[in-house]
Amino acid sequence: MKLLPLRCPQCGQKLEPHHNDVVVVVCMHCFTAVTLHQTGLQPLDVYYAAPGNDRVDAWLPVWLFHGRVHLHQRQSQGSSKGADKDAAELWQRVQRLYAPAWQQPARQARELGSKLVQAQPLFQAIPRPDGALLGETIITPEDGLKLLDFIVLTIEAERKDMLRDIKFNIEAGTPALWAIPAQKKGDSWQLAARV
Ligand SMILES: [Zn+2]
């Protein structure tokens, strides 16, 4: 195993991720986002989303994939006519797939991801606002795709027809990392991007 010094590829300052499982960390000196690969460190573009209002408590990382979900088969216990139609309409419409990438319980990540996938918000990129710091990213793009599998399942299982079996595949390219403004609500976060 080769140990790499964690230094910003842009300015040379030391990078200090707070957890072992961080996959993207922001340099506190020049604010470059850096991907921590086993093969080396690489700068990564981060898109900051315009906030919907003044209060921003954090900028949370979300992988945004452009892609499609292809539904091949959907079987349910009950009558599934309405549900099949809703499913077909949804996946016809969906072009953006969102994988929340910060540290949070898996169930919360799934619920938030399914809300985003169904709402299809179009974030507006702005230059990094002064003081905005991307939260630590612990989900890789590959894990983001696995999370999206669960998100699709969650959405389909929540339909009223008692889903029994489903076959689908996700077609998606390389995702972009977005920093989404958020507000603290109790123990969790509420996204507050302008859409
Ligand atoms: Zn730097």
Q: How many β-strand stretches?
A: 10
Apparent shape:
elongated
Query: What is the mean predicted local confidence, pLDDT?
Result: 93
How is the main sheet built?
7 strands, mixed
SSE arrangement, N to C: EEEEEHEHEHEEE
- Residue stretches low in confidence (pLDDT < 50, at least 5 long) are none
Overall radius of gyration:
18 Å
Q: Roughly what percent helix? A: 10-25%
Category from helices, strands and their pairing? alpha+beta
Bound molecules: zinc ion
Distance between the termini: 45 Å
Strand percentage lies at 25-35%
Number of domains: 1
State the helix count. 3
How would you characterize the overall build of this protein?
- The protein is about 25% helix and about 35% strand.
- The longest helix has 17 residues, at about 140-155.
- It has helices at about 80-95, 105-120, 140-155, and strands spanning about 25, 35, 40-45, 45-50, 60-75, 95-100, 125, 165-170, 175-185, 190.
- It contains three helices and ten strands; from the N terminus they run βββββαβαβαβββ.
- The radius of gyration is 18 Å and the shape is elongated.
- Strands 4, 5, 6, 7, 8, 9 and 10 form a seven-stranded mixed β-sheet that branches.
- A hairpin with a 2-residue loop joins strand 9 and strand 10.
- With about 200 residues, it is an alpha+beta fold.
- The site of zinc ion (ZN) has 8 residues, from loops.
